[in-house]
Each structure stands twice: as structure tokens, then as C-alpha cells.
């Protein structure tokens, strides 16, 4: 927070900063900032990795996102990611969904040809 404050008052960024909203001017010292962080800090990460992908017995979905032992069911969200991305999960979730849609179409097309 102290570094962000220093950065915010430097040009050209300072041209776009009207005022500090939080923690605000009442938090001056390092102790003040630490107190603010402890009382207001929270994670911004979204849960991922709750539906592990793999080929072993502990995996929930296979590498093509099929749910193990349940036909016609795929998982296409952040739960298949092994770790939390360093940024927001929106774009990675979209990417998983796009890849899943390609694989689902391939799988369905393949199964229709075999009929």
C-alpha cells in the first residue's frame, strides 16, 4: 500500500488519481497500514481445482473433460484447473469453455459416425 501511494503521486499516473479512497488519509504509518490490511484484507481469487482432471483413479474428469463413469457429462469451468491463475479467472474460464465445446462437438460427431 505504501508503494501504491508513492506510485499514485508520480506523473503521469497522478493526472488520473483524484484522491485515495482506501485506506485513506487516516492511515499514515506502516503500523496503520498493517492494521488496515489485517482488518480489510480478503482474497480476490476464485476457487479452482475442485474437479481434478487426469487419468488416474482420483481424477474427476479425463483430459477431454468427461466426468468419469458418467456418460454424456462434461465439466467446462475453472474447477478443472490445477492451480489458480495469477489474474482473474474470467478469461481462463472462457478458454476452457471454448476448448470444451470443440472437444464435445468432436466426441458427439465421432459417436454419431459409429452408429
Q: Which sheet architecture does the biggest sheet show?
A: none
Helix-strand topology string: HHH
Helical residue percent band: 25-40%
Roughly what is the average pLDDT, rounded to an integer? 90
Beta content comes to under 5%
Gyration radius, in Å: 23 Å
The unreliable regions are none
Measured between the Cα atoms of the first and last residue, the distance is 62 Å
Domain count: the total is 2
What are the salient characteristics of this protein?
3 helices, mainly alpha, elongated, 2 domains, 115 residues
Give an overview in words.
The protein starts with a helix and ends with a helix. The chain has 115 residues and is mostly helical. The protein has two domains: 2-40, no CATH class; 45-115, no CATH class. The protein is built from three helices and no strands.
Question: How are the elements arranged and paired?
Answer:
Layout: H1 2-8, H2 30-40, H3 90-113
Quick rundown:
The chain folds into two domains: 2-40, no CATH class; 45-115, no CATH class. 37% of the residues lie in helices and 0% in strands. It has helices at 2-8, 30-40, 90-113.
